[in-house]
Amino acid sequence: MFLAVFAALRPFPPPGGSGAASELMQSAADLARSGLPTGMAAGQWTSRRPISWISLAAILVSLFSLLPLAFIIWIAVQTGWETVSALVFRPRVGELLVNTLLLVVLAVPICIVLSVALAWLTERSSLPGARLWAWLSVAPLAIPAFVHSYAWITLVPGLHGLWAGVLVSVVAYFPFLYLPVAAALRRLDPALEDAAAAVGLGPWRVFRRVVLPQLRLAICGGSLLVGLHLLAEYGLYVFIRFDTFTTAIVDQFQSTFNGPAANMLAAVLVTCCFVLLGIEVLVRGEERYARVGSGAARQQQRTRLGRATIPCLLLPVVTTLLALGVPFVTIGRWLVAGGANVWRLDEIGLALGQTLFLALAGALLATIAAMPMAWISIRAPGPLQRLLEGCNYIVGSLPGVVVALALVTITVRIALPLYQTLFTILVAYALMFLPRALISLRASIAQAPVELERAAASLGRSPLKALWSTTIRLSAPGAAAGMALVALGIMNELTATQMLAPNGTRTLAMAFWAHSGEIDYASAAPYALIMVAMSLPLTWLLYVQSKRMAGR
């Protein structure tokens, strides 16, 4: 096995001699000349040299990612308590807080019920076309939330207010809950359910007492993701004329250009994000969910629906019609109404090119920034690693408008030449979507054997070259998946791009927003269609990756 490791790193000499043995002896001689004892464990060598510079890089990235949070605190201190209290404790903030709380309290439970029901039907029942319905339950992620809202408001012009926000939010964001719940259902061991049924529990009681508790982690994580998106969304609620903290912050920024009122609203919004994070930690608990015992979990047999097949089939059908049918029908109707005149190829080509460039550059920067943190989270876990990783996740949960507002103020007051430059917008993308790249990289690095790094180091390669030739290359598929997730987020990003992009920038989202803001829905339709067409392959990649993680 040891020789096989070296074979993967360096070709063997021609057959006919003791090439492998001589190479091992040469490696030992190299170690002796370098002043290291030959009996020294390779893990000790790599734990001293690479960790130092990799940890330093992770610390720098984490400190930089804390800039938006530090900015909010600094603005509050500079403003003074009297002004802060006057701006925060006023009727308008109370109205926004009530709207936001009602939106989260109503939309998240509906998403939970819908996602758990769809996941059980597609993963555990004999529903006809279960694989197709599973993919269609993930596909709404390819449609930006503001395109969902655009489709609904043009179909039902009088759709406004809280319940309109709940409806569109649910059809736009429920896949964030469906994905983890469906993945958890695939991994559950049915032996526990069989044991519960053997003691006389009916199917519903088995599900409530055995299956549902095991889905707690997936439900909590997905609910947190949905809740954070509800707090951060802007375009969706502008269309339906429903005021939230994010819409109010953007309005304040556009009217007063980063006045104290916008900053204090951002502080309240950040507080709401932290409250959601705290609630998720409390509800999640510390129970053990891993299977203990010998053997392996067998495949779950699907429950036969029988006479309930048609009523159960109505749920995915209606959900698909609302989440996919309405946007595609609306976009198609406006494309037909606009005819060939709405396809302004020069403008569309420019927007498409700029969108692709920003998505690829931002995804690459976020992946590179996430690499040191992902490496130490697997190779050198400890208190420092947990602290740094927590900083990245917390700041990654902040709404894009808060990150953009912080960078606007910092560049205007401290580094004016960087205001509205390509560097600033790419930094904003990296801060906002760093957790997406970090999660994918961490999973890939965990599957790369550390012995390969040690073997490469023992052959005389520098720590950076050893890391590059082994772990980084093996984690390339995970890095590609992370880049795809980051690119998907950047292509659909609106508020940060509007506030930070250089003059002359016109992405697909910005062009769509400009036309729809002028009530020119026909001219906006081509941009909506292209955004969806570009996002569908990335959504399919996300769906396939979730299947592979469950061994399907």
TrEMBL record:
It is a multi-pass membrane protein. The keyword Endoplasmic reticulum does not apply. InterPro entries: MetI-like, MetI-like_sf. It is found in: Cell inner membrane; Cell membrane. Belongs to the binding-protein-dependent transport system permease family. It comes from the Bacteria. SUPFAM superfamilies: MetI-like. Coiled coil: none annotated. The chain crosses the membrane at residues 53-76, 96-120, 132-153, 159-179, 215-240, 260-283, 308-336, 356-378, 390-412, 418-439, 471-491, 524-544. This is Fe(3+)-transport system permease protein SfuB. PROSITE patterns: ABC_TM1 (PS50928). It holds the Pfam family BPD_transp_1. It comes from Mesorhizobium ventifaucium. Keywords: Cell inner membrane, Cell membrane, Membrane, Transmembrane, Transmembrane helix, Transport. Residues 97-283, 352-542 form the ABC transmembrane type-1 domain.
